[in-house]
Write a structure and sequence with these properties.
The complex is a heterodimer of chains A (241) and B (191). Chain A has a single domain, classed as Aromatic compound dioxygenase (Protocatechuate 3,4-Dioxygenase, subunit A, Sandwich). In chain A, strands 3, 6, 11, 12 and 13 form a 5-stranded mixed beta sheet that branches. Helices cover 4% and strands 27% of the residues of chain A. Chain B starts with 15 loop residues before the first helix and ends with a strand. Classes of the chains: A mainly beta (241), B mainly beta (191). The interface between A and B is large, with 89 and 82 residues.
Chain lengths: 241, 191
């Protein structure tokens, strides 16, 4: 083992979330939280080097057309082709470059390519429903996909999930990891969805709804939807030592 | 204009479609130094039933106690093949297992080193946000002075320390309990 020189580091943590802007672990209308949400209070700890570092992924991690979910099959998937793009920023409005984004979604009929999904809707041999991208220097990303269908689930009687795309992001540190869902404007199911409504703050909730976007809509090809993601910002003062 | 961080949502039951491509049950290549360990366990829900649909992500330092990240400026060696990240999926039978190396001690508050530990993020249906915890190592004298372990009431500390599997050298067992008397200590990073 190397000698323990230079082992003291100044550590700048990440900002605490604003109340109501993130879901609580226990949200009874979403039944699966009842037996899975921790019951005891969590232990608050100060940031250390462990939490302000985190994985990064080199360019070769992501295949060239991994951001086009309509490619890679024998034919075109069924459904309405869309372009989903946006920026990844921190809470100080700074772009987060070169960070990995993973998405997954149902097909146009509202069916996932997954054996647990028994919804009686057809699978599409030309659609797998997963993609990856790295953000560019300005934090931008872009996916080509199809609009996912709404689908039923068994959370309560006549329960239906609004159309959504799952997003997974890393950001610069263990502390900035985020998994979320992007919704579509005007979806009539949103007011009834316990997952979407697990976020108490109305503004925070509505920021999960993408915006229709003329700027990225391509003539005679695809409608554009814009979805920006904000990862947690840095504390301005170092952790007390 | 600045906005607060985007809200988290559950990975749901179908995360495998989007996340499986990065799965790997071995975090380290053969050229990475350190004591090899295999860590395995199960995740139990509030009824004591093993969870069959969860994903774990691991983040760790190398055997010298250095993270593969630009903010780790310690003067310690870092092998080019060492990443320190792994994503592991629970099997249909509810078991997870991964191979790695025991990390070295990393700096902590007040200039004191932390005991060797792995960071764990846990994602599953029914979790609207990830859960965060740590795995510490058995028979590790540094555990006694570790600042996180010392923040935990003594009766709950064992939930953060893996146990040696009897008769299987190099194998450690570490279960996660989501609710109840033996509930795992989860960490609040202000997430």
């Amino acid at each position: 083992m190397s000698p323990m020189k230079n082992t003291t580091q100044r550590v700048f943590g990440y900002r605490t979330i604003l109340p109501g802007t993130q879901p609580n672990h226990l949200h009874p209308p979403y039944g699966s939280t009842l037996k899975r949400a921790p019951a005891k209070p969590q232990l608050v700890i100060p940031y250390t080097l462990s939490e302000v570092t985190g994985p990064s992924f080199p360019n070769e991690t992501v295949a060239t057309r991994a951001n086009d979910l309509t490619s890679g099959h024998a034919g075109e998937p069924l459904g309405e082709r869309i372009i989903v793009s946006g920026r990844v920023l921190d809470e100080d409005n700074r772009p987060i470059s070169n960070t990995l984004i993973e998405i997954w979604q149902a097909n146009a009929a509202g069916r996932y390519l997954h054996e647990v999904d028994q919804h009686k809707a057809p699978l599409d041999p030309n659609f797998t429903g997963c993609g990856q991208a790295l953000t560019d220097a300005e934090g931008r990303y872009r996916f080509v996909t199809i609009r996912p269908g709404e689908y039923p689930w068994r959370n309560h009687y006549n329960a239906w999930r609004p159309a959504h795309i799952h997003f997974s992001l890393f950001g610069p540190a263990f502390a900035t990891r985020l998994v979320t869902q992007m919704y579509f404007p005007g979806d009539p199911l949103l007011p009834f969805d316990p997952v979407f409504n697990s976020i108490a703050d109305e503004h925070a909730r509505n920021r999960l709804i993408s915006a229709f976007d003329w700027d990225t809509t391509l003539p005679e090809f695809a409608l554009g939807y814009r979805f920006d993601l904000i990862l947690r910002g840095r504390d301005a003062t170092p952790v007390e030592e | 204009m600045s906005l607060p961080a985007t809200a988290s949502q559950t990975v749901g039951p179908f995360y495998r479609i989007g996340l499986e491509w990065l799965n790997g049950d071995n975090l380290v290549g053969e050229d990475v130094s350190g004591e090899r360990v295999t860590i395995q366990g199960r995740i139990f829900d509030g009824d004591g039933v093993p969870v069959p649909d969860a994903i774990l992500e691991i983040w760790q330092a190398n055997a010298y106690g250095k993270y593969a990240h630009p903010e780790d400026t310690q003067d310690k060696p870092l092998e080019p093949g060492f990443k320190g990240y792994g994503r592991v999926q629970v099997s249909d039978e509810g078991l997870f297992r991964f191979a790695t190396i025991k990390p070295g001690p990393v700096p902590g508050p007040n200039g004191k080193e932390q005991a060797p530990h792995l960071l764990v993020s846990l994602f599953m249906r029914g979790l609207l946000r990830r859960l965060v915890t740590r795995i510490y190592f058995p028979d590790e004298p540094r555990n006694a002075a570790d600042f996180v372990l010392n923040l935990v009431e003594p009766a709950r500390r064992p939930t953060l320390i893996a146990k040696k599997a009897s008769g299987r050298p190099g194998v450690l067992e570490w279960d996660i309990v989501l609710q109840g008397n033996d509930e795992t200590v989860f960490l609040d990073l202000g997430l």
